[in-house]
């Protein structure tokens, strides 16, 4: 996992930059050579990556297991659903603004309630609070469309798939850069310290509560942007956007991809999205397979793909240095 | 009014049946088995199948409980014993199992809703306090209270509870005192699994078993122990009663907001005492 | 980190009639005590004397049942642990509480950081000079990229003290730093404390007499929650009350 020390030397840094540039060009030119189907999957993967990266901020970097991350996603989806779906406004930026505003308020309240506890208590309370939101969307039908949710939502500016793909790509890049700067800032380092020994951080003089509180809210904001994009993409906001089993898929992305690494959740997202789609096309047992992978990763491969890549990278660096 | 009272009571008992296993495991072993709802679902399904095949409720109940006990045994032996004192990993592993169990259930029972049939002895209704009430529900109330009494006795009055709690904190020391801690943990886990099975079979008579009931049961049990206090058996009883009555009376008199009364209570408790009404203080 | 020695030593910590009871047990009973700035002041006593309780009362981990505590003149009796930390009262832990999976340098960095909310970019450079020179002084420079969990027990205990010291406190409370150390490790710990004693007032709670007598400027002996005797190491050595309390033989060091 990434810790606090700069482990990249100049060579590695250049290589990483090169890889980023290559990936960037691949993604930017994608619509030119990709099928619609693949582009769609990649769109979903990029959206999920935003949600997974911010989930990782909480789980991987701050060490807080929360089952309530889905709340941010759901708020994003339903804000779009209510504002755009009910014809209140289609101004994209206004919708984003409202989404972020509502997310901050709700996550501020939830974080306040949940952070009065820690560990398992915390995880379970976040689960219960997420379920509260789920119940609200189911029962408050007049407002939220009940079980069927809200439908008929158009893309912003009524753009087609290709243009929407670029919208998602831009959002992804912005989110990536923002989260990266958070992680490499003092705030991020403090979160790592809290993850490693919350008690001692308090004894060193840190107000650990405020750090956790802000981390919760910040990660919720990114999740809400992801949910917002998702709702625009598929045109529906439904109670499944608050379902804790849905939140499980984001958890899986972080776990498989690698906790406490920056690119881990991205890898995990692509893996889970593609695996789910192809698996469910070929077999009915895809849930079983995902569940087994989940369990195996937790038991035996806790570092995740990203974690192993990091170890591998460090080993290579050490070898090169020896020469 | 009497009817509502009895309904509240029977619902409370169901809630207690659901959450007692979860509560026991958390209170004694600091483990939360998120697959708890899955055990309910599987027990209900198995109970149905056995009852259909053998026409015996007793057998259905026993086999259902045995199944969940066996599954719990497997969970402990294969997974949880390697995750001693790793709270987060335990949670995650049991979470992953939810997917596996639901897939399993879909394969075997094809996603249908099945009800365990009411045991023949308890079919029908009884005249009580001026109203007619389902015999089964009455029996359920009695069973629930008996179970509560038995569990309370086990926890308070025997050494086992103390040993287990000590073992959670410091296994080496307890082992030094000559008790096989791992064995005891496994036994507790299996026992809790059997309890979940009991709740599953008995509950499925009323709710039926279906894909999705695992999530519902888990959430309800969770709310009960969040309100009552995680790890406190008394808390589970208090929580069950509170929610049982709040929900039933809420549905009867304030149907529009009934659903939120329960959540309202939960949020209130979280604000006042985050670890639950009877939970440990921080 | 050199502090200027004031010509008039002020009273760093003053306890006035401090008591702490647990039910009917008077763990600390009407203790009045002065810790002077710049000194190494040890608190010793047989098991159950109340030293650990006293320690926790000063640090803020426990609240007083009665009495007052002053920190450089300020009444801190009602202050929370965090406030006391901010005023300059730091402590270490008998059961080592470090960041096991982080490196030595990273541990130090966390202790020395400004502790405010900040989003400025930061990465600990592989050759961070400040951290390196500090660790060099303490004999841990070679291990600065080693994860703390891979340090020896003695090194970890020394890290514990270093972390406390890195807080840049005015007063540092050391909670049994010599507990469980081998003789070689004890020597290194004594060396460490010797190196830091000029920069911070030290309050030491300890069982290891040898270390206490060699390091301390002043010793307070407790018994059954009360102060039995106080004085310089030489005075305490010949104090008959203290000898009686410890049944004599142990003091023949």
Shape of chain A: globular
Q: For the terminal residues of chain A, how far apart are their CA atoms? A: 25 Å
Spans of at least 5 consecutive residues with low confidence of chain B: none
Cα separation of the termini of chain B: 40 Å
Beta strand count of chain A: 0
Order of helices and strands of chain B: HHHHEEHHHHHHH
Could you give a short account of the major beta sheet of chain B? Answer: 2 strands, antiparallel
Tell me about the largest β-sheet of chain A: none
Structural class of chain B: mainly alpha
- Series of H and E elements of chain A: HHHHHHHHHHHHHH
Cα-based radius of gyration of chain A, to the nearest Å = 20 Å
Q: Compute the number of helices of chain B.
A: 11
- The parts of chain A where pLDDT drops under 50 for at least 5 residues are none
Shape of chain B: globular
State the assembly state of the protein chains.
heterotrimer
How is this structure best described in words?
The complex is a heterotrimer of chains A (323), B (282) and C (253). Chain A contains 14 helices and no strands. By secondary structure, chain A is an all-alpha fold. Chain B has 282 residues and is mainly alpha-helical. Chain B is 75% helix and 3% strand. The model of chain B has no long low-confidence stretch (mean pLDDT 83). Chain C has 253 residues and is α/β, with parallel strands linked by helices. Chain C has helices spanning 51-59, 81-87, 104-112, 129-137, 153-166, 183-196, 209-215, 233-237, 240-245; strands at residues 11-22, 25-36, 40-44, 66-71, 74-75, 89-91, 171-175, 201-205, 218-223, 226-231. In chain C, helix 5 packs parallel to helix 6. Chains in contact: A-B, A-C.
Draw up the topology in text.
The complex is a heterotrimer of chains A (323), B (282) and C (253).
Chain A: H1 10-28, H2 30-33, H3 36-61, H4 69-83, H5 92-114, H6 119-139, H7 141-144, H8 161-183, H9 186-203, H10 208-234, H11 244-257, H12 264-282, H13 286-300, H14 304-322
Chain B: H1 2-29, H2 36-54, H3 57-78, H4 87-109, E1 125-128, E2 131-134, H5 135-157, H6 159-169, H7 171-176, H8 181-207, H9 213-228, H10 233-253, H11 258-272
Antiparallel strand pairs in B: 1-2
Chain C: E1 11-22, E2 25-36, E3 40-44, H1 51-59, E4 66-71, E5 74-75, H2 81-87, E6 89-91, H3 104-112, H4 129-137, H5 153-166, E7 171-175, H6 183-196, E8 201-205, H7 209-215, E9 218-223, E10 226-231, H8 233-237, H9 240-245
Parallel strand pairs in C: 3-8, 3-9, 6-7, 7-8
Antiparallel strand pairs in C: 1-2, 1-4, 4-5, 9-10
Helix pairs in contact in C: 3-5, 5-6
